[in-house]
Amino acid sequence: LYPSLFLYDRTDPGVYRGDIGYLLDNLRENAGMEFETFVPQSVDDLIGFVRRNLSKGDPVILVAGSCDVIFGLNGETLLTEDHGEMNRTDLDALLSKENVKLLGMKAPGPIDESTKRQIFARDVALRVLREMVNNFEREAFAIGQKTVKCGKRAYESFIEDLENPSISWRAGKSQTYKWLGPSLEPQWTGLQGTIVYLTELYDQVEGDEKKILERAILNFESAMGNWRFWNEVVDISWSDSGVVEQAVREFSSNMEKRKKGASCVRTALLRYEEGIGQLKEFLEKAEN
Predict the structure, then answer these.
(1) Domains in the chain: how many in total?
(2) How far apart are CA 174 and CA 162, in angstroms?
(3) Among 24, 39, 202, 259, which is most exposed with the fewest C-beta within 10 angstroms?
(4) What is the pLDDT of residue 282?
(5) How many CB atoms lie within 10 A of CB 281?
(6) How far, rounded to the nearest angstrom, does the alpha carbon of residue 181 sit from its chain's CA centroid?
């Protein structure tokens, strides 16, 4: 329901969090999800909104420049995906320098047969698949006032940077090292979501369409497998902050390892491109 796309801007490791408008538009259009927008005027406002929504089981997205998922509240400390723990002092500082808003997502109920029919209705499925193809083939994606590399061009640019010895991935103010792991995670999640969606859609179609989707799913699963190989090559324990900087430095200076990582990404791209080819075949058959 959120068409998979790969975004890349080496200078902005938080780029994937900037496409909130695209995310919301797709969830509204394809899944009928609703969102409550709230602009907090104080830390108490912010915490109160989060507490009310989480108590109902409704996820909250924090939008402040980029976006971040709030998944918990410990007293008056937010637990977030990207910023980690944010206490009152952190939140006060954020409100003073950013235009902050919160999005309360109205969590859908259990997916019954009626909901499935809506989500996998033919017009919705064709729209999602067409958008996936477009996201792969277009070279740029607009986020606010900037454009970033997208789809096949984003993959190629990432590979080029990995193989370029003049480019450093060391930890520092720019935090470009996050492209070796943390900044890729939401993109892997998007790919996994694609596989889940196509697998469900597979059960809704028949004949040649079913065979085409099966090949596409296998290729996307293979692409995901090569990203797992990438993780093995990089071999950084991101949960252990004490070793990250040294591990990143070692990876950045080891061109053999970088080229091996680039090879994993290149193979993932090849499999992904083959999967996209099958989606185009599916669309051509379905639309003619």
Answers:
(1) 2
(2) 17
(3) 39
(4) 96
(5) 17
(6) 12
User: Is 67 within 8 Å of 35 (Cβ atoms)?
Assistant: no
Instruction: Name 248's bridge partners.
Output: none
Split at pLDDT 50, 70, 90, the class of 1 is very low
Backbone φ and ψ for 84, nearest 5 degrees, come out as 70, -140
CA end-to-end distance (rounded Å), the chain: 23
Could you tell me the two tokens for 221?
A: 């699963």
Do 145 and 254 belong together in one domain? yes
Residue entry with tokens 């950084």: 236
User: If you search the block for the tokens 């091996």, which residue do you land on?
Assistant: 260
- Buried b / exposed e over 126-147, threshold 16 CB at 10 Å, is ebbbbbbbebbeeeebebeeee
108, 45 contact by CB (below 8 A): no
- Would you say residue 77 has pLDDT above 90? yes
Residue type, 123: D
Structural Rg of the chain based on CA atoms? 20
Q: Is the pTM of this model over 0.90?
A: no
User: What's the confidence (pLDDT) of residue 101?
Assistant: 84
Whether pLDDT at 175 is above 50: yes
Residue-number span of the structural domain to which 262 is assigned? 111-287
Phi, psi of 151 (to 5 degrees): 60, -135
pLDDT, the chain, mean? 85
Is the same domain home to 77 and 160? no
Angle made by CA atoms 47, 48, 54, in degrees to the nearest 5: 85
SS3 46: helix
- Residues near 78 by Cβ (< 8 Å), separated by ≥ 6? 47, 50, 62, 70, 72, 85, 86, 91
At position 59, the amino acid (one-letter code) is P
User: Residue type for 265, please?
Assistant: V
The one-character DSSP state at 164 is -
Q: What is the mean pLDDT of residues 195-217?
A: 93
- Match 């099958």 to its residue by tokens: 278
